Amino acid sequence: MSPKVLRKQPNSHMCFVCGLDNPFGLQARFYEIEGKELVGLFTPSVEHQGYPGRLHGGIASTILDETVGRAVLIDHEDSWWVTTDLSLRYRKPVLLDGPIRVVGRITGNRGKIYEGSGEVLLADGTLAVSATGRYLIQRIEEITENDNFAGEMWNVVSESTDPHSIPLN
After folding, report:
1. Over pLDDT 90: what percentage of the chain?
2. d(CA 16, CA 22)
3. pTM exceeds 0.70
């Protein structure tokens, strides 16, 4: 049974991972699902490859970092975070042959530091890349000079293709 989507998270305009107006980015969408997990969905293009036909390892790291960090928003939707530590294990190549699912969750909290883990899953649910990370909660003013970033550039965009459930295996 596929977990039910509970809520879609915001996208920005120009972020490399979630920026809907960034022609070079991943244009990923993020969905909170049952079980306090977050799923990121994106379809890589040839510009995101390392070896021919394979997702670049740095892009896998980038999408895992964003997904695990964003999992903080499940319980703290107005929070902002920066990565303090990220560790990855590459297990299988990620082919550029279709949409990619990334799952993240928060595994611990030490005040302003949140710990999490996540995985890139292949189409058949096989684990391709796993990660653990730590994220520091900060005020938006400490991250960007745009005091109205959330109001101007951070919005939930409802789309007809938004899923109601997401298969994980």
Report:
1. 78
2. 7
3. yes
